[in-house]
Specification:
Elements lengths: L5 E3 L11 H16 L11 H22 L8 H19 L5 H17 L9 E4 L5 E4 L5 E4 H4 L4 H17 L1 H13 L4 H32 L5 H10 L16 H9 L2
Parallel strand pairs: 2-4
Antiparallel strand pairs: 1-3, 3-4
Helix pairs in contact: 1-9, 1-10, 4-6, 4-8, 6-8, 6-9, 7-8, 9-10
Length: 265
């Protein structure tokens, strides 16, 4: 699919998965950041720049709303479920699935623990593990969850619980219905200005949705008696550097920003 509520980091990773020493090192660094998140704090903007951006964004949104209409309404549930099933089938066809018992046992355990914290999240009970080294975690409008071998095999059980809680947060907030609505609106844009307006609004939606889902993930950790350092540790795993060297994408804030925010910055 074009863009989704997913974690996808196609970085090169050793094929033998994670090592205990790697987990311990990440946990040590994560605890340090929880105590002092300043090393990953986003660079502060000046007052005038912040004010100018706020005014510019407000003006752009007001003009865009007048010219192009407001935020698209979420897709009807049944239509979104149908599209989600098509998207899921395409992913399975592209990557295949794995029946690795250890991976499924770890995922099933994380899912059970996350459901205890979010029993009304709308999870259908269906999970799929794609047979790919790419790191993927994805919540779908049909209530299913898709993860990859490359993700589960390289993170700790506690980090996996955070990721599952994050994805269940997307389900609970019904983010995929809104995501599909934006994609359809972009596909039918009748001018470059209209396309640019909805592309910008969609990026803002994605970033807000990821932050909201991170909060769900932390809540799941805390419900299970675990600290937010496991969420920070997951972002450390993804980051290319602690000083903001990782990239912001159209669908996700930078991992350093997310680590800083989750750590309590």
């Amino acid at each position: 699919m074009a863009i989704s509520m997913q974690e996808s980091v196609p970085e090169a990773v050793p094929s033998d998965g994670f090592k205990a020493s790697d987990i311990a090192e990440r946990q040590t660094r994560a605890l340090e950041l929880v105590n002092d998140p300043s090393p990953v704090q986003p660079k502060a903007k000046g007052f005038l720049k912040t004010a100018w951006e706020s005014v510019s964004n407000l003006t752009r949104n007001l003009v865009g709303h007048f010219l192009h209409g407001g935020i698209p309404q979420p897709l009807p549930v049944e239509e979104a479920k149908h599209l989600a099933r098509q998207e899921n089938e395409a992913l399975v066809k592209e990557f295949g699935t794995t029946d690795d018992k250890e991976l499924h046992a770890r995922l099933d355990n994380a899912v059970q623990r996350a459901r205890s914290a979010l029993p009304e999240a709308g999870f259908s009970g269906k999970t799929t593990i794609l047979d790919t080294d790419e790191q993927r975690g994805q919540a779908n409008a049909d209530g299913s969850l898709i993860f990859s071998r490359g993700l589960i095999d390289r993170i700790s059980d506690e980090e996996l619980l955070f990721v599952v809680g994050h994805e269940m947060g997307h389900l609970d907030a019904k983010h995929d219905l809104q995501r599909m609505a934006y994609e359809q609106r972009l596909a039918t844009a009748k001018s470059s200005g209209q396309h640019a307006y909805f592309a910008q609004r969609m990026m803002e939606f994605y970033h807000d949705a990821e932050r909201q889902a991170d909060d769900y993930g932390v809540r799941v950790l805390e419900h299970n008696g675990l600290g937010k350092e496991h969420a920070v540790s997951y972002f450390i795993r993804k980051m290319t550097g602690f000083e903001g060297g990782d990239a912001v994408s159209d669908t996700h804030p930078s991992d350093s920003e997310r680590a800083w925010r989750v750590a309590g910055g």
